[in-house]
Design a protein that fits this description.
single chain, mainly alpha, 77% helix, disordered N terminus, 424 residues, 21 helices
Length: 424
């Protein structure tokens, strides 16, 4: 074991550098770039190797594909705004769902389908609107907004963290969505039990109010299908992308591109429309983050350290599940971003994911959920900050009430991961 430790020292130093840089709020992409240089130098490499690693990174087909996907997702988000997606969704829910308590969860869940940066601020205003005249306190409104906004972050291929997890782990996109679907369902159920149901029970009068106009059962059934069709017309871009990816096992790049083209054709176009659209879609910080992630991954593989990790863990008798849980959770807590904890930890965890030459799906699932729990509990999370600020909520009661469902989510996920397969 002692012989292996010096070989892992460059990785330890690089991770320490990374944590320090993030603590000083240096951009993730730049932090990963500097940490890659540190890893390279302490591994005994120089400028020539760095140039070669950068060349390999920028010519990596997978890297270029992810860049294309993220740019298209940014275009999708902006086009949905241009076609009044959010306004129409708001009108459908407000006008047709009679249970206003449920709307407080539906608003953030619906608007959480699109990974809009800081979108919790927008959904918080809608939660406030739906909660008017309900018996609900500030902490409960905060919990409903924060929790249900993040139900799709486990399995939706529109989120950068999920995209990175798919490409870095090597799991097929459709298979990854199905793998993480139980976590999404668990997350929704736990949010309903811990946060939505208590408010619903307390507001039975509001929740059980008769539909406008005193509709009978037949009218209600017709009303349900009317609502379903109206919602389907709104969310079809997202459903179409997920359908093609899961059923036809295609890369998300192509259905995403087709959806963007269709929405672009439908969008009202004024003067400077195209220039403004691409200006907002071109996010240098996101592209820098993806470059940093892949540079760190390529550097890590170049050093040969991945081959040493399983050997060291076996010699030290450290269960692989410990690293699968502790490393992503810690990085999630420190960075408060799924894309960050995935980009930092997955290259290091790859030898464990593929232990014995087999891809252990349970390990991929466990690592992602552990990291996601870290992000949800992090007070650095932008949605955490915006939600608490909007509702003027005390942080401690809000944070402590998040703990119980997260602990249960972890326990149930560990059991699921064991079923799907964990490395020995």
């Amino acid at each position: 074991m002692n012989e292996k430790l010096p070989q892992l020292l460059p990785l330890v130093i690089a991770v320490v550098f990374l944590v320090i840089l993030l603590a000083f709020k240096v951009k993730l992409g730049l932090s990963l770039f500097i940490s890659s240089g540190v890893l390279l130098v302490f591994s005994g490499n120089g400028p020539v190797e760095l140039v070669e690693i950068v060349r390999r990174t920028v010519t990596d087909g997978q890297f270029l594909e992810i860049i294309g996907i993220i740019l298209l997702i940014n275009l999708l988000e902006e086009l949905l705004r241009k076609t009044n997606y959010f306004d129409r969704a708001f009108q459908v829910l407000q006008g047709t769902v009679k249970n206003r308590v449920k709307i407080t969860a539906l608003f953030p869940a619906l608007f959480g389908l699109i990974p809009a940066f800081g979108g919790a601020k927008f959904s918080a205003s809608l939660v406030d609107l739906a909660a008017q005249d309900l018996a609900i306190d500030r902490t409960e409104k905060s919990l409903l907004n924060y929790w249900f906004r993040h139900v799709w972050e486990f399995c939706s291929p529109l989120f950068p963290g999920v995209i990175l997890a798919i490409y870095l782990s090597g799991v097929e996109t459709g298979k990854y969505i199905l793998l993480m679907l139980p976590s999404t369902i668990l997350f929704i159920v736990l949010g309903t039990v811990f946060f939505l149901r208590p408010v619903n029970v307390r507001n039975q009068a509001a929740a059980g109010a008769a539909p406008v106009g005193g509709q009978g059962q037949e009218e209600q059934r017709r009303g349900f299908w009317c609502v379903f069709l109206r919602l389907f017309r709104i969310v079809w871009p997202i459903l179409a992308i997920v359908f093609v990816v899961v059923v036809f096992k295609a890369s998300i790049l192509w259905p995403l591109l087709l959806t963007v083209v269709v929405l672009f054709a439908q969008a009202p176009k004024g003067e400077g429309f195209v220039r403004e659209l691409f200006r907002k879609a071109w996010s240098l910080s996101t592209l820098g983050m993806v470059f940093g992630v892949y540079l760190f991954k390529t550097t890590f593989e170049w050093t040969g350290i991945p081959q040493e990790i399983p050997v060291l863990m076996a010699a030290a008798r450290i269960p692989s599940s410990v690293l699968l849980i502790v490393f992503p959770f810690t990085m999630g807590l420190l960075t408060a971003m799924p894309s960050a904890f995935v980009g930092i930890t997955y290259p290091v965890l790859l030898p464990i994911f593929n232990h014995g030459g087999l891809l252990h799906l349970g390990a991929v699932m466990l690592a992602y959920v552990a990291g996601h729990i870290g992000t949800m509990l992090s007070p650095l999370h932008l949605c955490f900050v915006l939600t608490v600020e909007h509702f003027q909520t005390e942080i401690l009661p809000f944070w402590t009430r998040l703990l119980s469902p997260q602990v249960i989510l972890f326990i149930l996920t560990y059991a699921l991961a064991w079923v799907f397969g964990l490395p020995g």
